[in-house]
Amino acid sequence: MRFLIDFFPIALFVAAYKLHDIYTATAVLMAATVVQTGIIYAIDRRLQTLHKVTLALVLVFGVLTLVLQDERFIKWKPTVLYASMAIVLGAALWIWKKNFLQLLLGSQLSLPTPVWARLTVIWVGYFLFMAALNAYVAAYYSTEDWVNFKLWGYVFPVVFIIGQGLYIARYLKEDGDAPAPADSRLKDSKGGKP
């Protein structure tokens, strides 16, 4: 469900571009992102920082694209978003000694502190990779190629999320995995009652 909510603005953007042009697609992306943000808020009753930043950047870069009739703004928006997120996470971890990822997700996931630190470094690397990849495609390919990249390039976040899930799965403990109390292990080792 969450994947579909995240994917539908991109799908509508690509469809609008194929049917009309980049400016119509930009307006559709702006409207779809507002709707997406509203749906996320209706489900969670709050918005994460990433949702707020994404909405703000889509609207700001979208307005610049439409007003100035310059497609470069919408093409470079993902690079700015990804680079900004990498800078914030990296600066928080290495300069301010705060782990924003743990602060944002710590109530949902119980992981050891070193795992949170490695996970944040992985996220920083992912954001930098995506920023560079988008910048390369935006700079060296046509707008149509960039739009196609936005569609098939959605495989990168999917692979990243799956990989991240596999990485943290070994650190997650289920209620049934808790070690038995010491006295019950003693009973078992002696073959029954003490």
Please explain how this structure is put together.
The model is unreliable at 175-194 (pLDDT under 50). With 194 residues, the protein is mostly helical. 78% of the residues lie in helices and 0% in strands. The longest helix is centred in the middle third of the chain and has 28 residues, at 113-140.
Short description:
It is built from 9 helices and no strands. It is an all-alpha fold.
List keywords for this structure.
78% helix, mainly alpha
Could you outline the blueprint of secondary structure elements for this entry?
Blueprint: H1 2-19, H2 22-44, H3 49-68, H4 72-94, H5 100-105, H6 113-140, H7 143-152, H8 155-169, H9 182-189
Helix pairs in contact: 1-2, 1-7, 2-3, 3-4, 4-6, 6-8
Average pLDDT number: 86
- Which range does the strand content fall in? under 5%
- The gyration radius over C-alpha positions equals 22 Å
- CA-CA gap between termini: 52 Å
Approximate shape: globular
How many strands, which pairing sense, and closed or not: the largest β-sheet?
none
Structural class: mainly alpha
Annotation, overall tally of beta strands: 0
Which residues sit in consecutive blocks of at least 5 with pLDDT less than 50?
175-194
Q: List SSEs in N-to-C order.
A: HHHHHHHHH
